[in-house]
Design the sequence.
């Protein structure tokens, strides 16, 4: 009896919670916890997206700059024909070397992302030292100017300019861009 | 005390703690959301900058081909003033994005992003020799209003250029030759042989025309250059170096003759105005001067005939070379030259002595039509140039649009007037 009365008086002295109070508090806490969890989850996903977007922007900016610099070294387009469109661009530089920008499937990246992605390769073929009896591309004259390329098209819009439409893709994002590049002026003035 | 210390937190404390945590989370979430929008904005800004550069590159190319290129592309009016230009860019709404277009099928991502949102604006003003152009995009970005503008100068020279020649004789040299040739008094002062300064000036102007044209036509250098050009005409392959060399020789001859004739234009105009002073020149020297006027006029006209001849050959040869051009860029250069040469011939066809004016007109119209047909799809800037040329011809203002045509037209008319200066009727 003593134990029981002690327990009762102890409960009364501590104020105690009714079941209803507990249920309400637990409910509010659960609700808030769910909200906070949701926010953290969204934020985390946004953070990843922002990070991916930033990486992609930097990559596309670099790729575009590299493509522009490569084409600006050219003085004449070879292929595609004037007004035509192609996935590769052939042009001649001021030393009459042949330059090519072409897509090469990136097997590793395609496997990792689950999308068919390409590298854009810049190949230079030196006319002077070219051995026509044993033609082979020199890997030293080849460099990758863009990665994560989903698709790229070169349209020779005038004798001096090429329009480039490019799609880039990562696991999570895709981005399309369009830009125009003028050949370097070869200095013929009348 | 012990009991109080072990009591833990009250529900209120827990709730406050939770609310604080939630508030902090919301602030963090909003900051993150804002950062995400900013990142999207940076991406849109990069795209807008790329597209703006594309627009400006097209303006450069159009102006490079055609001094009235910004008019041809629809940015400027007939006086060169820029229209307020504002347009969406998808679905080939503007020529800047029509080849290739930004469409749902060709570039779906770009189309979705740009459609009815990215608005291209081009503005600016024309100053001497170039346009000050500002181009860029406005768009509704998730983070507010987006805007990206770029300014540049685009060369568009349609004004006058100074014509220089190294073939002009000095006044002193002409005076010496006049006193020796006309008055048979070598070393005498020309002023002492005529009664007025007006007569001395008239003789000087006539002397410039007669001696300069005569010297040129009889010079071994000119004959040699002309002969060499003619001898190279046997080379029939337009892709060969000699064919190009021959064209170049005719072109250089035409340019030098035009410069020479231009240097005499002022003398011919003055002689036409001051011919009344001829009456004060004593006889028989007056008769010799009249003969020099007649022969000088004929030599001057002969130069014009040779100039036309060279220009016809250059035009025909450039046309052949353009069909066999080694690259599109080479072909474009030849086409620009063809327009320039053919335009001079067309605008001055009434002065042609050998080829009838109607034939020159028909040749030029045919050339323009061929250019329109050949480049409608392949290179719209050349198509627009040809189209614009046709418009100028139809409106009858071709001569007003090109300084060179005004210059040559006035020169050739002055030559005709000088030919009849002794008998204006």
Sequence:
């Amino acid at each position: 009896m003593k134990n029981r009365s002690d327990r009762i008086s102890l409960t009364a002295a501590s104020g105690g919670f009714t079941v209803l109070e507990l249920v309400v508090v637990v409910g509010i806490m659960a609700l808030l916890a769910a909200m906070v969890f949701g926010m953290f989850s969204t934020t985390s996903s946004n953070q990843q997206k922002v990070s991916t977007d930033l990486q992609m922007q930097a990559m596309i900016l670099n790729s575009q700059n590299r493509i522009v610099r490569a084409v600006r070294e050219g003085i004449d387009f070879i292929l595609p024909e004037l007004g035509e469109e192609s996935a590769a661009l052939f042009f001649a530089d001021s030393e009459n070397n042949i330059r090519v920008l072409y897509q090469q499937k990136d097997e590793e990246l395609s496997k990792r992302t689950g999308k068919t992605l390409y590298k854009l390769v810049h190949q230079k073929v030196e006319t002077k030292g070219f051995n026509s009896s044993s033609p082979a591309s020199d890997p030293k004259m080849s460099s990758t100017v863009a990665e994560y390329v989903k698709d790229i098209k070169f349209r020779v819009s005038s004798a001096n300019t090429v329009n480039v439409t490019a799609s880039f893709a990562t696991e999570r994002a895709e981005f399309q861009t369009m830009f125009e590049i003028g050949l370097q002026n070869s200095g013929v003035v009348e | 005390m012990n009991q109080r210390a072990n009591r833990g937190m009250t529900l209120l404390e827990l709730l406050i703690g939770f609310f604080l945590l939630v508030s902090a989370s919301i602030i963090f979430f909003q900051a993150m959301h804002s950062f995400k929008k900013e990142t999207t904005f940076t991406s849109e800004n990069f795209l807008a900058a790329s597209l703006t550069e594309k627009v400006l590159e097209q303006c450069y190319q159009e102006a490079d081909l055609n001094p009235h290129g910004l008019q041809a592309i629809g940015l400027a009016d007939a006086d060169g003033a820029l229209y307020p230009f504002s347009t969406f860019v998808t679905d080939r709404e503007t020529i800047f994005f029509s080849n290739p277009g930004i469409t749902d099928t060709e570039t779906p991502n770009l189309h979705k992003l740009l459609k009815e949102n990215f608005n291209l604006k081009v503005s600016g003003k024309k100053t001497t020799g170039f346009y000050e152009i500002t181009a860029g995009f406005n768009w509704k970005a998730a983070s507010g209003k987006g805007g990206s503008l770029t300014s540049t100068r685009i060369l568009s020279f349609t004004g006058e250029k100074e014509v220089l020649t190294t073939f002009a004789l000095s006044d002193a040299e002409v005076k010496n030759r006049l006193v020796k040739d006309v008055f048979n008094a070598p070393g005498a002062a020309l002023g002492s042989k005529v009664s007025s300064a007006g007569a001395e000036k008239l003789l000087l102007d006539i002397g410039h025309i007669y001696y300069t044209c005569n010297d040129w036509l009889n010079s071994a250098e000119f004959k040699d250059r002309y002969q060499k050009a003619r001898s190279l005409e046997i080379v029939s392959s337009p892709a060969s170096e000699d064919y190009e060399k021959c064209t170049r020789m005719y072109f250089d001859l035409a340019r030098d003759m035009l410069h020479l004739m231009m240097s005499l234009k002022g003398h011919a105009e003055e002689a036409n105005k001051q011919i009344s002073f001829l009456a004060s020149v004593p006889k028989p020297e007056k008769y010799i001067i009249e003969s020099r006027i007649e022969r000088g006029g004929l030599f001057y006209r002969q130069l014009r005939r040779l100039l036309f001849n060279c220009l016809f050959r250059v035009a025909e040869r450039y046309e052949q070379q353009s069909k066999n051009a080694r690259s599109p860029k080479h072909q474009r250069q030849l086409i620009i030259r063809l327009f320039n040469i053919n335009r001079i011939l067309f605008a001055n066809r009434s002065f042609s002595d050998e080829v009838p004016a109607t034939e020159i007109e028909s040749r030029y119209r045919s050339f323009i039509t061929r250019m329109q047909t050949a480049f409608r799809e392949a290179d719209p800037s050349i198509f627009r140039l040809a189209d614009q040329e046709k418009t100028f011809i139809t409106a009858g203002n071709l001569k007003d649009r090109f300084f060179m045509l005004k210059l040559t037209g006035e020169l050739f008319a002055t030559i005709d007037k000088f030919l009849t200066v002794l008998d204006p009727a």
